[in-house]
Amino acid sequence: MAREEKLFTQSHPLTPGDRYGVLSGFDPGSRTLPAGFRLAPVFKAVPVDIVLDKDVPVTMRDGVTTYVDILRPATSEKVPVIVAWSPYGKGEGSAPAAIGVFGLVGLDNGIVSGLHKFEGPDPAYWCAQGYAICNPDVRGVSDSEGDSVLWDRQEGEDCHDLIEWLAVQDWCTGKVAMSGTSYLAVAQWFAASEQPPHLAAINPWEGVSDVYRDLVMRGGMPDTGFARQLHENSYWGKGRKEDVLAEAQRYPLMNGLWQNKIPRVDRIEIPAYVVASYSNSLHTVGTFRAWRGMGSQQKWLRIHNTQEWPDYYDEDNREDLRRFFDHFLKGEDNGWEQTPRVRYALLDLQGGDHVNLPADHFPPEGVVYRKYYLDGRTRALATKVPVEDAIAAYDVDTDPGLASFIVRFDHETTMVGYPKVRLWVEADGADDMDLFVFVQKLNAQGAPLQEFTVPNRSAMIHDITERGASILRYKGSSGRLRVSMRHLDESVSTDEIPVHSFDRVEKLTPGEVVDVEIDLSPIGLVFYPGEQLRLVISAKNLFGSWMPGLREYVPQNSGHHLIHTGTSRASYLQLPVKTDG
Fold this sequence. Notes:
The structure is a single chain. The chain is 18% helix and 29% strand. It is an alpha+beta fold. The protein has 2 domains: 332 residues, Alpha/Beta hydrolase fold, catalytic domain (Rossmann fold, 3-Layer(aba) Sandwich), CATH 3.40.50.1820; 212 residues, Jelly Rolls (Sandwich), CATH 2.60.120.260.
């Protein structure tokens, strides 16, 4: 077997169940859904006549046939089309699992028609605005031929071929766009990187941009809980599906297979409207990374203060997206070009968040990076290096298994940008360390401040977010690193954002002290006088899993962790402090 060959397992056929929606069955042909049509009682009615071309065959460049559903206005006028690309079935928007997700986060299923792909644009709205929606069953899914793959050049090439096929259909203007959250966002990085000529604009709404760093080996740790959920609950079909879990086990270091799963975002040259948040512990880092690296001269970033599903289906945000698409797909002179290139959020976690703050860049003008040095003796954070060397230590097997450092602010202080830590660390009784780092906001009395990102604030949502489901409840900024994977890739690292190569293992020897840099997820936080910031260095993930029900990663720690501080080993937290209004 080739050293970097993909690994596959047999897929399970798509059968009725939690993932099986009303339109999941194979039923080729064209029909019209009249205005007032309702897919099921839980969903809203469609406002206009919609033509549904179901299970239309599309052939990829290698001869594999895939099937797509196309929903388009019942008009003789040609329309542009928006692609919702994912392995989730064409009918999964009406599946019990998708309905349950809306219920979990506190959204009314009546805001959508059920004709949408899960996490994708709703045809009921977009067809009424003069757009078609294409919901594909991608390679290997449902009745489509071939073997499924997870986020790589193959998906980009397949989506390229679909885009070019759609553009020449007799109902299409030749303008194609893409939109959607999560998987549907990631697919856009790969598709646009292939530069299909008829792709006019993209709208990635939060998604990873590096399968190794964001999904299966974050910080060099084999944390595959969400990858397992993807593998087991998606890619239903007749063929095989890529086994990214087996790949992560076989290829724990960065290699050609993982490089192929990093989209070449510098090749994205078309208009892009990117949406991000500080709070999605799965998607945040990858979304910002992709936005930074995109080659497009026409890219917009909006950072919101909720969770992606409520944000994506919000009426005002949908209208904002329509203005973007109307401008670039219909040529409308609607003032979109005057939209600030960046609209960011500042959180105070007490009900006073600010959103849609305009800027030309992220971080905005006026941000400086300030070092707050750790003092292992007083457990304080200060802007001057402690004059005495000291060590903060903890036993990884007993409570609390962490070390905290705190700074109190005398004046209102705004932080917006990319935090990181540089730490001098030592393992006593082990040759490696799994380190988890957190930045939390505390009120003046020292209590942690948190914020739900979804409308649901019930007792149940408190329960499931108490130790996990961190995408639903924002608790602060986080980062992680396995110390033996500390080597930096100097070709892409910056002072603000360290990037690890993950191509080598450098174990620790007894008594060895090494310095490590760890990037934390971007922040936008306001601290009022008296409030505090807490830095936590821990042997375990205090925020828990990203989503409910995921298998939690068990850190590979033993012995004691020693954090060195002071003049000879000046460990620090670097924060992006805004110095002007």
